[in-house]
Amino acid sequence: MISKNGWDYFEVSWNFEKHPLLKFPSNTIESSFRQWKEFTKTQFNQLKENEEELNRIFIDIYGLQNEITPDVKDEDVTVREADLERDRKNFILYAVGCMLGHYSLDEEGLVYAGGSFDSDHYHTFQSDENNILPILPGSYFEEDIVTRFVKYVEVTYGEDTLEGNLQFLADAIGRRKNVRPREAIRRYFLTLSQFYEDHTKTYKRTPIY
Questions:
Q1: DSSP type of residue 143
Q2: pTM for this one?
């Protein structure tokens, strides 16, 4: 069950509900990540302990005490722990999914994957009904992808901590020291080898946005 639940925290699972950071409410993304990290560490240790206990049981049953040990290597534990860079990037990808109506902050799981679009599923954060998010070097459109992303972060974590949250996310995508978070995020979306590459990795080389 621990392994299954761990798998369900990622979008590639049929039972995915929402990004794991959103399961740990806070006013900063960093705080949510710390809670997520502690949770996954506990799950990891519990699963490792369970697997080693099962090994001890089978060793005792078959009298293999002199042949093998019950120890399980960390890399063989079948549940993933939190990863700062991966989870921040996935948060950005999930936000794009919410912008396009794929997911909603008001419902769990997949909300829209084609067919008739129903705006009633989106109240906390409105998705783009036309499924068009301009990605340009400058802020030429009021509703371009960066503006929408900033709004998404503000809605999910609050206005008071917005700038700190944007910086926390921008640092995950290689923000340079003198580059503002919004500009770093814009460059991330514009650069084919960054946003698009991360997107296709998440979906097994099959982009869906």
A1: T
A2: 0.86
